[in-house]
Amino acid sequence: MNNNPRKKEIISKAARLFKKRGYSAVTMRDIADSLNIKAASLYNHINSKQEILATIIIEIAEAFTSGMVEVQTPQLTTQEKLQKIIELHIDLTVKNPEAMACLNNDWMHLEEKLPYFVKMREDYEENFRAILKKGIAQGEIGSRDIEIMLFSMLSTLRTLYIWYTKKDGVSAVSLKNDLPVTLLKGIIK
Amino acid sequence: MNNNPRKKEIISKAARLFKKRGYSAVTMRDIADSLNIKAASLYNHINSKQEILATIIIEIAEAFTSGMVEVQTPQLTTQEKLQKIIELHIDLTVKNPEAMACLNNDWMHLEEKLPYFVKMREDYEENFRAILKKGIAQGEIGSRDIEIMLFSMLSTLRTLYIWYTKKDGVSAVSLKNDLPVTLLKGIIK
DNA sequence: GTCTATATAGTGATAGAC
DNA sequence: GTCTATCACTATATAGAC
Q1: What CATH code is carried by the domain that includes residue B92?
Q2: Which residue in A has a C-alpha nearest to residue B110's C-alpha?
Q3: CA A27, C1' C10: Å apart?
Q4: Coiled-coil annotation: which residues (chains A, B) (predicted)?
């Protein structure tokens, strides 16, 4: 989509700052400082602060959208589908935890791209919900409140980036090993 | 602690705005507008924007700290302690979802009170961790990665406010009924 | 307790030299 | 591609009238 290397660098540095302090608290001067240039120079590569945010969020949101398409392979059991969703979140978080943070915390500051983003997020949740619903109908998963199961899984998966990037945080390997069983089978023996 | 009714009103309106757009994106004019007064008038009741944020966050953080003390009753089993932690989060979220949002999203914008807050949060997590560790040692809970169990539960509990305040969101009653079993026993039958 | 007016500093973004 | 200089606007906060 975009192979301008300087632009990529700007977006990458900006994402790190957005993750730490949030979009609104980061200034164009902060972003420029992190690249050792002046704020005005940024505008040779990007059009606006808003464009930086939209680029970060929309790219990873689209990765989730296409990931969900593959999850919905009809041959899979509910448990396999849920396993694949967990892996999708782990993979995208490990690949770009800064973008995950922006996706989670700064999506409401999107302007032009906001409706497009909100539609993708709603569709993602609706597909997730349908998988859980089918799982209950087929007796694979417990018949408890679907919304609670949905938000419980999604809350954990969406904030993975916090724990993955912590010092002494969890590794990608232990996540792949222990997160699915923790979410699917619970904590109590 | 503070029974000035106008000050409480300002803090309450500010919390609603902070929840929606975040501390940095909300201006003193926005807060004043929501009270139908001018920004300058706010300073007759509060000293600074920062004081508003600190008041919101520290009050609910202290509620979690004292809640955790009661959870640690030695007579309780691990499962009972975890049940009590879940109830604590549900109760405080239902009581003040706006403050929960600020606690989660805007704590890094605290200035003078930041070290005090961080200490409380670290102690809370450490106490939670100790409960899980003891549960594993006593064979009550599965011997998987403690950090993953900890962050899985905490992520869900800390973002409860999102789902509780959604239209068609989950009610306090279904949360108390189905959230503990979902977190402790998992989703798959 | 709220207002108008204002101080002071910072914001995103542009123009044009090098 | 980066710079200096600057614009137009907005931020938090204060002073003092009513």
Answers
A1: 1.10.357.10
A2: A21
A3: 10
A4: none
